[in-house]
Amino acid sequence: MATYEQLFENNRKWVAEKVATDKDFLAKLASDQEPDYLYIGCSDSRVPANEIMGLEPGEVFVHRNIANLVANIDLNVMSVINYAVANLHVKHIIVCGHYNCGGVKAAMTPKDMGILNPWLRNIRDVYRLHEDELDGIKDEHEKYNRLVELNVVEQCRNVIKTAVVQKSYAENGYPVVHGWVFDLKTGLLKDLNIDFEAVLKQIQKIYNLTGSH
Ligand code: ZN
Asked: What residues have their beta carbon closer than 5 A to ion ligand 1?
């Protein structure tokens, strides 16, 4: 583990290494950002967004919170999505969960979690929506992993419910929303292969916010 004192030293080394491999690195860093991707992931320290996708500074706009939730009254995540779509014109929005997520585990634990209660309620509601499937899984670990996946799918739906995503897709054909899960044991990303068009169509029966019907 790095000590606090090492952090600035690490920072200077990072700059030196980046400049050594790319002399324009700092000029690029200081220029305007034009990322193609918005990544919404968990705050978990073991899931470093840029690194797992092999992306450099400037290539991905990132939002992270406990258990990668997209709650419709969360001004933070909603501002990020709006800015990324309306101003940065991202082409892809990725919601990335991970197995062994502490937030999802906490939501499956029937006890008082204090300030986390209203936050974890979002995941408890995902459980309620998929109760039949989840209760049919006898192995606790498998059930937990499946809830991680279903939570990603539901958060993708929440992204697709936003007006900014629906309007931009109708006008420009992007962004497309994807759901992934990161496996801490293998380091690999799993694409849940969400059928964006199909989900959008299904959601727009109730949430058509494009202004055309
Ligand atoms: Zn997590």
From this structure: 42, 44, 101, 103
Are the C-beta atoms of residues 43 and 66 closer than 8 Å to each other? Answer: yes
* d(CA 131, ligand 1 centre) in Å: 21
CA 134 and chain centroid, separation:
22
In sequence order, which residues have a C-beta less than 8 Å from that of residue 23 and are 6 or more positions away?
Answer: none
Top CATH class, 33-201? alpha beta
pLDDT tens readout for residues 190-206: 999 999 999 999 999 99
Ligand 1: centre distance to CA 101 (Å) = 4
The answer to whether the Cα torsion of 62, 180, 134, 142 is positive or negative is: negative
Look at the block and give the residue holding tokens 């705050």: 43
Give pTM, 2 decimals: 0.95
**Tokens representing residue 18 in the block:** 């980046």
Distance of CA 129 to the CA centre of its chain: 20
Q: Is 92 helix (H, G, I), strand (E, B) or coil?
A: strand
* Strand partners of residue 178: 94
Residues acting as catalytic residues: 42, 44, 46, 98, 101
